[in-house]
Amino acid sequence: xxxxxxxxxxxxxxxxVEVQQLFDMSTDPTAKQKLLSRTTNVAHCNNCGYEGMIAxxxxxxxxxxxxxxxxxxxxxxxxxxxxxxxxxxxxxxxVNALPNEKRKGYLFQPQTMLTFQTMIxxxxxxxxxxxxxxxxxQKRVNVIQRLLTTQKSEDRIAIIKQEESLIDGNFFAIxxxxxxxxxxxxxxxxxxxxxxxxxxLLENTAVGQDLLAQNQxxxxxxxxxxxxxxxxxxxxxxxxxxTEAKTxxxxxxxxxxxxxxxxxxxFQVLSERIDRANEDQKPRLIELRDKLLKITREIDEExxxxxxxxxxxxxxxxxxxxIEEAVQEVLPELDETFSHAIQVEFEKAHxxxxxxxxxxxxKVISTLEKASTPPPEIELIQKLIDAVDGPxxxxxxxxxxxxxxxxxxxxFNAIIAEGETREQAPELxxxxxxxxxxxxxxxxxxxxxx
Length: 450
Prior knowledge:
Helix content: 55-70%
Number of helices: 19
Number of domains: 4
Radius of gyration: 28 Å
Strand content: 5-15%
Order of helices and strands: EEEHEEEEHEHHHHHHHHHHHHHHHHH
Distance between the termini: 48 Å
Number of strands: 8
């Protein structure tokens, strides 16, 4: 990004600001995320504390949606002719970055956005997110803010009852994201407040009760599979478990967890059972087979779509001149599907003897390995959890005394809070608490000796 000299809108002090004017998805897969997050073209004034976006021309390009949008801030007071002089080279960059076969008519008819918000709305609209959907989302956020500023539990419950029409799956998704964000930032107090609100919502809304019931069903399904796996999970046993599922939610959970077991042979076993069933049992088993085929088909399609998206993202990264930086920029988006896409593409390149592509993929793998290496503090926490007894934990703490400080304890506490919020296994939470007590005791003794 280029740096420009400007002045603070508040105190008029000179500022040096990094500015990005071109957001092109064809060369940067994170361009949309950067623009929508409003984290680019932001001025920070050390003199008065001002922070805000600066006026700058912007060009956005998404070849997949055939979008070429331009925005020129009216407050810059630039004539139309001068605007075209500044925007023109950016559009030329977009066109030049595309191979000839991908240069389509929309590139020569860029859409002019009158405001920055109009540009954001147009991008979201192309993704299927309407203005009504955004307004509904904002209403949900407003309810969460009201709940956060309400001290008494009975007053919060009154608000929950009053706004229950807005409290749906999306509402809980927003709340979960906020909880995870505060935990990541080490804000334990806010995380606990939000977790308390989440508990009240779960207990006092119809959607919350449904989520609690689904969560319990999912846990029981996981436990059932784990118990059956101890002595070897055969296709016959798996079919028995699936046949006993009382709800569709439990059925979906079981199929998701044991998808690899629902293969051709499994359905053969099910067909044989249908053939042997009496007239009363047969319709239910046929209906079950139809449901299982539908669920497995949907799961496979979803996995295929995710793999295709991961492969597309990998291709964008491999096109970059700075592969390591491109990987770093999209790290939060990467998951096991992306790892699978790397493996698939590496094998293809190896079979084709494409040494240049192999080298690029290896750079991606190397960058991911570096990023996935946990910091020493997290490694120590894992070792403390795995320790068989108190003396073993004490030895670990002695060996890593330099790591045990206030920040370490704060991070440790945040991990426990996150585990409690997500209702992780009691055994894990107990192990975390015991390890934390040992670390806290060791820290106190270290401070006394100091």
